[in-house]
Design brief:
By secondary structure, this protein is an alpha/beta fold. The chain is about 35% helix and about 20% strand. It has twelve helices and 15 strands. A hairpin with a 5-residue loop joins strand 3 (about 45) and strand 4 (about 50-55). Helix 1 (about 20-30) packs across helix 10 (about 320-330). The radius of gyration is 20 Å and the shape is globular. It binds ribose-5-phosphate (R5P). Ribose-5-phosphate (R5P) binds near residues 185, 238 and 240.
Length: about 350
């Protein structure tokens, strides 16, 4: 018996930040709704690289979903999203949802020194001013950013997708493992994830950074006794230069960890500003056995080719089903909470 597809009359478009994921979201949505799977990229560049945006379809009164993240080049991708929102509004779109699989700038969520901006707030204010009704994202760096946008800002969770894939690929028994947050700020995330899958051994790496340039100075594992002889899972929302994860992995190995695994949602993967060493090199050299990332930021085979060791440890898990599910619920006036609330069922079903 074939299940009846839900009627979906919304329209999906994307910018250039992650066309592959946008199209995967469209394909997923088409599996269980009447959506035709079409997600046109409506943004290009003028000669000077300013955004050249035009909708390919009539959007008057439509429920419009604009899929665009602010991964590198973050400024360009952000302006592209703003231009898309402006074009949709001027074309009389009914509702506009900015689907931002990776919401960058979220680490700038407070004033760290005198006379510095809260850039996450500036980004939210700009998106709100353009008439966007809702931002849909996953694994926002910190929950407080949700309060900087005064409309709905559902924040999904992709970690269960990563854990499920790791359990299947590696045959993990989470209750025998130690979960480790690579910094103090991620302890709640790590603890909640542990509770979800029955892991009670939770610890974190205490790191100190230089006040002037933010450079990582020292790190120690708070409960090394929980680490010895165990498989350890480092859990983080994002990896940037790779310094935090690489250093934490080294400390775990020193403390006698058996295997060091990584579950991290957003692969920002930059080169360190000072050393210029790319994150893929840093993580390739680190004592990490396997890394699982979501596809919120695209990694091309071309960019991976110079880093074969990193490539061999890398596993990418698609976040498309998560976003397709949330888009369908939003369009059909359903509940998104069942999607962003992590459940053990998500992880333990085959
Ligand atoms: C910090 O709070 C974040 O969750 C990441 O741990 C951090 O931003 C990673 O940075 P990097 O990879 O440059 O050490």
């Amino acid at each position: 018996m074939t299940e009846e597809r839900k009627t979906f009359n919304g329209k999906l478009f994307c910018g250039q930040s992650n066309v592959r994921l946008a199209q995967a979201i469209g394909a997923e949505l088409a599996k269980f709704t009447t959506f035709d799977g079409k997600v046109d990229c409506v943004a290009g560049d003028f000669h000077d690289e300013e955004p050249d945006v035009q909708f390919t379809d009539n959007v008057r009164d439509a429920d419009v979903f604009l899929i665009q993240s602010t991964n590198r080049p973050g400024g360009k991708n952000l302006v592209e999203l703003l231009a898309m929102a402006n074009a949709a509004k001027l074309a009389d779109a009914g509702k506009i949802t900015a689907v931002m699989p990776y919401f960058g700038y979220a680490r700038q969520d407070r004033k760290v020194r005198a006379r510095t901006p809260i850039t996450a707030q500036a980004v939210c204010m700009a998106i709100e001013a353009l008439g966007v009704d809702r931002i849909l994202t996953t694994d926002l760096h910190s929950g407080q950013v949700e309060g900087m946008f005064r409309r709905a800002f559902p924040n999904l969770e992709a970690l269960p997708l990563l854990l499920r894939k790791m359990r299947i690929d590696l045959g993990l028994n989470f209750s025998e493992m130690t979960f480790v947050s690579p910094d103090k700020g991620g302890v709640v995330r790590c603890d909640e994830t542990g509770k979800l899958v029955g892991c009670t051994r939770i610890t974190f790496a205490h790191k100190s950074r230089s006040k002037t340039d933010g450079e990582l100075k020292t790190m120690r594992i708070v409960d090394p006794d929980l680490v010895e002889g165990r498989d350890c899972l480092l859990i983080d929302d994002l990896v940037d230069t790779g310094g935090t994860l690489a250093k934490a992995a080294g400390k775990l190995k020193e403390a006698g960890a058996r295997r060091v695994l990584v579950a991290c949602v957003h692969p920002v993967l930059s080169a360190d500003r000072k050393t210029r060493i790319p994150a893929m090199q840093v993580l390739g050299d680190a004592p990490i056995d396997a890394m699982y990332f979501a596809d919120t930021i695209p990694l091309s085979e071309e960019s991976l080719a110079p880093f074969p060791v990193f490539r061999a440890k890398l596993h990418t898990v698609s976040s498309a089903p998560l976003f397709a599910g949330a888009i369908a619920e939003i369009h059909l006036h359903g509940s998104v909470s069942g999607i962003f609330r992590r459940t053990a069922k998500d992880i333990f079903q085959d």
